[in-house]
Specification:
With 546 residues, this protein is α+β, with helices and mostly antiparallel strands. It has 24 helices and 16 strands. α16 runs antiparallel to α17 and α17 packs antiparallel against α18.
Length: 546
């Protein structure tokens, strides 16, 4: 379901880039503009500029630029559509869709209810000495409990019944968020009764589900999670991502663990770039989500058979998104939670032992003498290698395998694999200019041909609504395909589409020159020198001239 053109343009008109960015990073006055250290790359001299008058930002170090929407997309790791909705909520702009979308309002109401339930569980924790003692025994500090909004569900459901009556929450709504079990007599019970509660948030910070850990080791199962609901899909949510986003963005590296307390204990000792899969296998949606923040992942799984299988699955999911995969097995009988109890240095020392996952397999191959098992490792290595999209990187790893296995490279075959990185389709475009309609139709009909020839979708300039649709199409937004796009009465070919895209790219270059002119008078000498050197390298092909 597409957001309406009216909403997109209203958000762009109202959302001031200075107001939005200043909530995330400190801005310093520089003439009529503002400057800061860029949040998207490491630098010592501020080259990140913001112009409230022009309503734009630009970093002269890494080149990122755009509107308030662009900044949110980059900083929060969210889609164009999600950024539009977040800004619409900030500025109290009603979100309209191309078709009536009652589900949007209904889901918003469910998010409000889940947050009220979070607060209810937090209050119940304060009243339960048994639950507080359990958390103390597990070594959790009050600040950590607060950061993750940890709570407690009482053994009896009477308090919850009184709470929902007071808050006008219906039994049906509790059922829709997967919180209760309905009895034959019409009464209900809390599925999480007698458990420590871990709210599960999506990447936007909305509570979408709950996890519960029994405070008695005799209770089975020890851990339970909410079932899938209309606001929760376990394949799309990573526990702790919301709390970890800043650290992930800064380090460009994610440590992936399996459980709540594994993550929380690492976070408590200062290892904050960590997310958890919550007992489910890694999915392509997880990979795509992480790729917005990091380029490397360290799998901190158990060293048992199940942990190794989970690591293999994770590698196959992450590699297509060009995320380097490292493996950090923990010694048998330990988990990250127990390791964190030994202090941050113990965790850091363990992380330093991490190995590129494929090179980890080569080490196993070197120590394995059994021919059958050697073949199994080689087959697994080649299978995982097929998930790497870059052929030259595959070639480097093949040479490593050849050297270790003693098999000529030409005898090692990597299966051709169509990497199914799912992209969503696009919706309505009736009011767009003709050339933008042509591009959208061309992308739908000749997607692969066009993507092979043109890869600068982040460097094109078009109407606000077109840019929204393009971003959703390329990055996988929550839109449905409309046949009217394919059936629109306009002839189109891959060549026509690429020519139209190149024209929009030229418009973008022209706009960048205008943006540069806006900020040049306020730039420090060091930044200006950096720009000059960059331009020189472009003219000379990066070589020193005689």
């Amino acid at each position: 379901m597409a957001i309406s053109q009216e909403t997109v343009e209203e958000v762009l008109r109202v959302a001031n880039v200075y107001d939005v960015i200043s909530e995330y990073i400190p801005l310093e006055k520089a003439g009529s503009s503002y400057k800061a250290l860029c949040p998207f790359h490491t630098e010592k001299t501020p080259s990140f500029m913001v112009s409230p008058q022009k309503n734009i930002f630009k970093c002269f170090g890494c080149g990122k630029s755009g509107s308030a929407i662009t900044f949110l997309m980059e900083y929060e790791g969210i889609s164009f559509g999600e950024a539009v909705i977040k800004l619409a909520e900030k500025y109290n702009i009603p979100v309209k869709f191309t078709k009536e979308d009652k589900s949007f309002q209904e889901k918003n109401k469910l998010f409000q209810i889940t947050q009220k339930i979070v607060e209810f569980y937090q209050e119940q924790l304060k009243k339960s000495s048994e639950a507080k003692n359990y958390l103390k025994k597990r070594g959790l500090l009050p600040s950590t409990i607060e950061a993750f909004e940890i709570g407690f569900s009482p053994f009896e459901s009477n308090a919850l019944k009184q709470f929902i009556q007071k808050e006008n929450i219906s039994i049906e709504e509790l059922q829709r968020i997967g919180l209760i079990t309905i009895k034959e007599n019409g009464d209900f019970s809390d599925k999480f009764a007698g458990r420590i509660i871990f709210p599960i948030k999506d990447h936007r910070g909305r509570t979408v589900a709950f996890g519960g850990r029994a405070i008695s080791d005799n209770k089975s199962p020890k851990y339970i999670n909410s079932p899938e609901t209309e606001i929760y899909s376990k394949s799309k949510v990573l526990y702790g991502l919301y709390q970890a986003k800043d650290a992930l963005r800064e380090k460009k590296e994610a440590i992936i663990v399996e459980g709540y307390l594994d993550l929380i204990s690492l976070y408590q000792v200062g290892i904050k770039n960590v997310v958890a899969t919550l007992g489910t296998a890694m999915t392509p949606e997880h990979g795509k989500l992480l790729s917005k923040f990091v380029n490397r992942a360290i799998l901190m799984f158990d060293a048992d058979t199940a942990g190794k299988k989970a690591a293999i699955r994770a590698a196959k999911v992450l590699l297509p998104y060009r995320i380097e995969v490292y493996y950090c097995p923990i010694e048998k009988g330990k988990d990250p939670d127990e390791l964190a109890k030994e202090g941050s240095q113990a965790v850091i020392n363990q992380l330093r032992k991490s190995q590129d996952f494929l090179l980890f397999l080569l080490d196993r191959l070197q120590t394995q003498k059994d021919l059958k098992k050697r073949k199994e490792i080689i087959d697994l290595y080649l299978d995982i290698l097929s998930y790497i999209p870059d052929k030259h990187i595959q070639g480097i790893y093949l040479k490593e395998l050849s050297a270790v296995a003693g098999i000529p490279v030409e005898l090692l075959e990597v299966k051709e694999r169509e990497l199914n990185i799912k992209e969503e389709e696009i919706n309505s475009f009736q009011d767009l200019p003709l050339n933008e309609k042509l591009i959208l139709k061309g992308l739908l009909l000749f997607r692969d041909d066009i993507l092979r020839e043109f890869n600068q979708f982040d460097k094109i300039n078009g109407s606000a609504y077109f840019m929204y649709l393009i971003n959703e199409f390329i990055n996988g937004g929550e839109l449905e395909e409309l046949e009217e796009i394919k059936n629109f009465d306009i002839p189109v070919s891959p060549k026509d589409t690429i020519e139209a895209l190149n024209l929009l790219h030229k418009n973008w270059l022209k706009q960048q020159a205008e943006i540069d002119a806006t900020f040049l008078s306020n730039l420090d000498d060091a930044v200006l020198q950096k720009i000059l050197e960059t331009k020189k390298s472009l003219y000379t092909g990066g070589r020193k001239q005689k």
